[in-house]
Design a protein that fits this description.
The complex is a heterodimer of chains A (634) and B (352). Chain A is built from 17 helices and 30 strands. In chain A, strand 11, helix 2 and strand 12 form a beta-alpha-beta unit. In chain A, helix 2 crosses helix 7. Chain A has 3 domains: 255 residues, TIM Barrel, CATH 3.20.20; 144 residues, Rossmann fold (3-Layer(aba) Sandwich), CATH 3.40.50.10630; 124 residues, Archaeosine Trna-guanine Transglycosylase, Chain: A, domain 4 (Roll). With 634 residues, chain A is of the alpha/beta class. Chain A has a 7-stranded mixed sheet with strand order 1-27-25-28-29-30-26. A 5-stranded parallel sheet of chain A has the order 8-7-6-5-13. A 5-stranded mixed sheet of chain A has the order 17-16-15-19-20. The longest helix of chain A is centred in the middle third of the chain and has 28 residues. In chain B, helix 8 runs parallel beside helix 10 and helix 10 packs parallel to helix 11. Chain B contains 13 helices and 8 strands. Chain B is an alpha/beta fold and 352 residues long. Helix content of chain B is 39%, strand content 16%. Chain B is globular. The chains are: A alpha/beta (634), B alpha/beta (352). The interface between A and B is large, with 59 and 51 residues.
Chain lengths: 634, 352
């Protein structure tokens, strides 16, 4: 695959005003300073300050003021970012209001649904301020290029409100706009945020929202909340209640406060790497939001995956059927299929159920499995593989990697069809890739692909639990008799093969093999070190990360295989590599990956990527690689 | 052809399903009905008829206006003069004693390519005795000569669709192929020709916000009154098949106006009317999802008030509208919709 290089689109012109602080897939919290404005944090809530509306809540971080307002109408003590919307007026409005930090353009683009048939009508208008661009995007991939204006800092998705409730159109438009904006620009989706869909919008990378919907619904006597859908559906209501101004103002305040709380919650979830968990709860408030999430997972998985981290220090809660399709889970399955092959000397496959406690081997059940297998003759010919959901399959040697060591699911002993299907597919892949002489299943009931396979020896045919002494005895016995029939495997060789498995998963088959060439193991499991036969070290396994940390020599090998390189400009690297100094990156680089920093044709440093390849070359701010070792260091 | 007009031209010629250009009796008018009207201070019956002509020249040449679906009333084959005369006779047979006759086509009565002079003569012959005979025409077909050829023989009122007084709206929203200047010229010719002037004004053509639309309608009413219109009729847009409005509506990018907006526009325009001039509205498809509507609970009451205002020509009729919770929602929409960065079709109570 070719390198991502800076400036191939127009990302090279990206502005340098956005400091991303935390990332969670497409979502981020960032700090941004508008011209002459205060520094604000995203996801940012623009709160309407319009004189004709009741229910302002003091203390907004950013105000959205309609074009016709005489002034910002701020409440006492407020000094927010003031965004003036020049609205849709065909009549000109007074520009250059001294009180506005930012003005959204007043030109009205023709809707894309007809614009693409109108010759010469631009889809994009550039605001008077030049840092604002309003774009109306049809869900069409060819329009998803980066913005034409390099100075653009804020991209506004015009007409987004018309897509509310139309799950596929809204998701496609936001994702296209997000792509167009690139990582260095803010994306504002006007008049679509509610406390219910805010997490979804943030998950797709919307940085700026407003409280327009909350204020509209309040005027109909509805206070928006995140947990429940409307108190009454306006379209079905026999008669909207006639309420006093005080009541309507109270609804507005409640709705605005709910928006603020949700913004705070989303920021916290992003910081903790748990936005997906929050999102899966919130989308359930409205059917279209669930549909939108499913559409996003199904049709935009690749875009999400490019921004996903390979490691997170938090649990991954797979608590809904939608979790089955979340990007980290699919990435795991896809990586297994693309990169994984079982250790060559492992000839006896043992299928084990998962445990709630992770990594599995720290759990009571798996300690019992390990103890039963301990005395197996030729034990290192045995390959333990956990069949589980939603990951499908976790080979023992990968149990410390993300998300194998992090996921948690509701366990009822019953499987959904798609769970069985995924396990079956991965097991079939495993058996094709490996040279197993025997397959032993210690799985419980409900897996037809095991139960109907006469070649599989089953240890729990009588409905016993996994810790049943008889079943464990049969497991040991079956493993012993199968292992006795295959060539003897010594432990050191198997340990090296297990580490090679991890290296392949982390760096791909070629680079993984290159890393392992003529290497030997040192140290103690699980904190293995990968050393050169003649001295020197290539990598070490950090158990908490579940990944290999490369040395310069190790990075050299990976880079020579043409993988996981980050190209830097020609300057002396001191400390970390910042995005501004990145000139290219291999496209497979993800946040959390170990990467080789390459200057010219020399690996000059090794470290952990703090952002994916796309963002490294698409932005000019923030640490791209947290450097661990530099060439020339003692 | 460029811009919206080009889009309309192409859109009209796309193959469509059932319902377009169905076979009709070419000797019968497209529609005939009666309605109550205010004429000279008293309530009278008006006979309204739409002749089935070859259709609007603007639609034929340029695709027509973005909200107008009258092309579906137009037969595939242009009717002969004999058939048009038969239609006039059929209308006359249903007149009974209606003192006011409104005779429309789905185009322009004063377009000689659409309505031959012989048919106009027959119309004047049949309805010359009416206390008022209203015909409609696009501005470019109005000349002092054509008006003068009819006016002495009947109590003629010529109706012209101004729609908007803003040329940007006329071009970029309505695709009217007319400017305010064109309207003023035609209005002057109507009066010079000795006829009364009636003007139609649109409320909420596509791509305008609700509040812009109200301002735009009020300004258009003012422009029509100052051009000498004796009557200004504010027509809230209703969603007709085969139009841009319909197309946008299906994409969530257009919603018909609120009836509250009609009331607001009437109230403001009424205040501008000089003595003797009348501002009124009779919302087509009012109270339905495809026409101007409110929450579903108060539609009838608001429509009744608009109707009373039309028949009483008194602003007090509008004050009598009962309050409803949805009016707060409408007010909030006016305040907030400009922040939506268009295209405009903010969610109302009832969707198409």
């Amino acid at each position: 695959m070719p390198l991502h290089r800076r400036g191939e689109g127009r990302e090279g012109d990206a502005p340098v005003v956005l400091d991303v602080i935390e990332r969670d897939v497409m979502a981020r919290t960032a700090e941004w300073t508008a011209p002459d404005g205060p520094r604000v944090r995203t996801p940012l809530l623009l709160e309407v300050r319009a004189s004709r509306l009741p229910g302002d809540v003091p203390g907004c971080e950013a105000a959205l003021v309609p074009s016709r307002a005489e002034g910002p109408g701020l409440l006492q003590g407020e000094s927010p970012l003031v965004v003036r919307d020049l609205g849709s007026d065909m009549r000109p409005v007074v520009p250059d209001a001294a009180w506005a930090h930012l003005e959204l353009p007043g030109e009205r683009p023709v809707p894309p649904s007809i614009a693409d048939e109108l010759e010469g009508v631009p889809l994009v208008t550039v605001g008077r301020d030049a840092i604002v661009e309003v774009t109306h995007l049809p869900p069409s991939p060819e329009l998803a290029a980066p913005p034409s204006a390099g100075a653009t800092e804020l991209v506004v998705l015009g007409g987004a409100a018309c897509l509310l409730g139309r799950h596929d159109a809204l998701v496609d438009a936001v994702m296209a706009a997000r792509k167009r904006a690139g990582p260095a620009r803010l994306l504002y989706a006007p008049a679509v945020a509610t406390p219910m869909d805010l997490a979804l919008l943030a998950y797709m990378g919307v940085d700026v929202v407003d409280d327009v919907q909350a204020r509209l619904e309040a005027a109909g006597g509805v206070a928006l909340r995140p947990e429940l859908t409307h108190g009454h559906d306006l379209r079905d209501a026999p008669r909207p209640p006639l309420r006093g101004d005080d009541e309507l103002a109270a609804c507005a305040r409640e709705g605005v406060l709910a928006m603020r709380r949700e913004v705070a919650l989303v920021r916290e979830a992003i910081a903790r790497g748990q936005l997906r968990e929050l999102l899966e709860q919130r989308v359930r408030s409205e059917p279209w939001q669930v549909a939108a999430l499913r559409h996003l997972d199904r049709h935009h998985n690749a875009a999400l995956e490019r921004r996903s981290p390979v490691q997170r220090p938090v649990r991954l809660l797979a608590t809904s059927r939608d979790s089955f399709h979340r990007v980290e889970v699919r990435a795991w399955v896809d990586r297994l299929l693309a990169r994984y092959a079982p250790p060559p000397s492992a000839k006896v496959l043992v299928l084990l159920p998962c445990s709630a406690r992770k990594p599995y081997s720290s759990s009571r059940t798996h300690r019992a499995f390990l103890s039963a297998l301990r005395d197996v003759r030729n034990r290192w010919a045995v390959h333990e593989v956990v069949l589980t959901s939603p990951l499908g399959m976790v080979p023992r040697e990968l149990e410390r990697t993300y998300p194998a060591a992090h996921y948690d699911i509701p366990v009822t002993g019953e499987w959904f069809p798609e769970e069985v299907e995924r396990m079956a597919a991965l097991l079939a892949h495993l058996r094709r890739a490996g040279a197993y002489s025997a397959v032993i299943s210690h799985m419980g009931p409900g897996l037809p692909f095991v139960e109907n396979d006469a070649t599989v020896t089953r240890t729990r045919t009588g409905g016993e639990g996994p810790l049943d002494a008889g079943a464990l005895g049969r497991l040991a016995e079956a493993a012993s008799s199968a292992a006795a029939l295959v060539p003897r495997v010594d432990r050191a060789r198997r340990d090296l093969e297990d580490l090679a498995s991890l290296a392949r998963l982390q760096f791909g088959p070629e680079a993984g093999a290159a890393l392992l060439r003529d290497a030997r193991l040192a140290g103690k499991p699980p904190a293995w070190r990968l050393a050169l036969r003649g001295g020197g070290q290539l990598a070490s396994l950090v158990p908490d990360r579940g990944l290999l940390s490369l040395t310069l020599e190790g990075a050299e090998r990976v880079a020579t295989a043409g993988r996981y390189r980050v190209l830097m400009d020609d300057f002396e690297l001191k400390g970390n590599l910042f995005a501004v100094g990145v000139s290219g990156a291999d496209p497979e680089v993800r946040e959390g990956d170990d990467v080789a920093v390459v200057r010219g044709d020399r690996v000059v440093a090794v470290g952990v990527a703090r952002m994916g390849a796309e963002e490294m070359v698409g932005s000019r701010r923030g640490i791209a690689v947290a450097v661990r070792h530099r060439r020339g260091e003692a | 052809m460029e811009g919206l007009a080009g889009w309309m031209y192409d859109h009209r010629r796309r193959p469509r399903g059932r319902g377009s250009r169905e076979a009709h009796d070419p000797g019968a008018p497209a529609a005939v009905w009666r309605e109550r009207e205010l004429l000279g201070g008293e309530h009278v019956d008006a006979l309204v008829a739409v002749l089935r002509t070859r259709g609007c020249s603007h639609e034929r040449l340029r695709g027509g206006c973005t909200m107008c679906g009258y092309a579906s009333d137009t037969p595939a084959e242009p009717p002969t003069e004999e058939l048009l005369l038969a239609q006039v006779r059929a209308v006359a047979a249903q007149r009974r004693d209606a003192p006011w006759v409104k005779l429309y086509t789905s185009g322009s009565m004063l377009d000689p390519d659409e309505v031959p002079q012989g048919v106009l003569d027959a119309i004047v012959g049949a309805f010359g005795d009416a206390r008022r005979l209203t015909v409609e025409s696009r501005a470019e077909h109005v000349t002092a000569e054509r008006v003068r050829a009819l006016a002495p023989r009947c109590n003629l009122e010529v109706a012209i669709g101004l729609e908007s007084a803003c040329d940007a709206v006329l071009e970029g929203s309505v695709a009217k192929a007319m400017t305010l200047g064109d309207f003023r010229r035609a209005a002057a010719d109507v009066r010079a020709g000795g006829a009364a002037l009636r003007a139609y004004v649109l409320l909420k053509p596509p791509l305008l916000t609700e509040s812009e639309a109200i301002d735009d309608a009020v300004e258009a009413a003012a422009a029509a009154l100052s051009a000498g219109a004796a009557t200004v009729s504010i027509n809230p847009v209703n969603v007709q098949a085969g139009t841009l409005v319909d197309f946008l509506g299906h994409r969530g990018q257009y919603e018909p106006p609120w009836l509250w907006s009609v009331v607001e526009a009437l109230r403001r325009a009424h205040a501008l009317a000089p003595p003797g001039a009348q501002v009124l509205s009779s919302p087509t498809a009012g109270g339905t999802p495809r026409g101007a509507h409110t929450c579903g609970a108060c539609d009838r009451g608001v429509l009744a008030a608009i109707e009373r205002h039309r028949l009483e020509a008194s602003p007090r009729a509008l004050d009598a509208v009962e309050g409803c919770g949805c009016k707060d929602r409408w007010r909030a929409q006016l305040a907030l919709e400009g922040l939506m960065q268009g295209p405009f079709g903010p969610r109302g109570y009832r969707r198409l």
